[in-house]
Amino acid sequence: MNMGVEHKITGIAQLIAVSIIILHLYFSLLPSSASLFAVAYFVIKGISFALFKRNPLSILDAISGIYLIFPVTGMFSNSILNMVSIIFLAQKGVVYLFR
């Protein structure tokens, strides 16, 4: 697969997953189960990219995803940490999309 296409697909998937989390956390338009799939995407992507692509910054995707499990399930939520995680993941999606 062409590396440019792979980055675009990853960027689109990243932005869709971020959108799902935002729609659940801030607007209650989607069930938490949809957000948990989006969070799982970040955890799996972060760990797999860190291990297989040798990209140590990808572990931050996994850490953000692990943190977002808590607000998505309603166990713990901090507005600042939520926004930092969401903005970080969204900007990575934009970077992948326009790379």
Commentary on this structure:
The chain has 99 residues and is mainly alpha-helical. It has one domain (3-97). The chain is built from 4 helices and no strands. The chain is globular and about 40 Å long. The model has no long low-confidence stretch (mean pLDDT 94).
Task: Briefly characterize the structure.
This protein has one domain. Helices cover 79% and strands 0% of the residues.
Descriptive tags:
single chain; about 100 residues; mainly alpha; 4 helices; globular
Q: Give the ordered list of helices and strands.
A: HHHH
Summarize the amount of helix as a percent range: over 70%
Q: Which secondary-structure class do the elements indicate? A: mainly alpha
Largest sheet: none
Distance between the termini: 16 Å
Question: Low-confidence parts, pLDDT < 50 over ≥5 residues?
Answer: none
Cα shape: globular
Number of strands: 0
Task: Give the overall pLDDT as a whole number.
Answer: 94
Percentage of residues in DSSP E strands: under 5%
Radius of gyration, taken over Cα atoms and rounded to an integer in Å: 13 Å
**Quaternary status:** single chain
How many domains in all? 1
Query: Number of helical runs?
Result: 4
Task: Show the helix and strand layout.
Elements: H1 3-25, H2 32-52, H3 59-73, H4 79-97
Helix pairs in contact: 1-2, 1-4, 2-3, 3-4
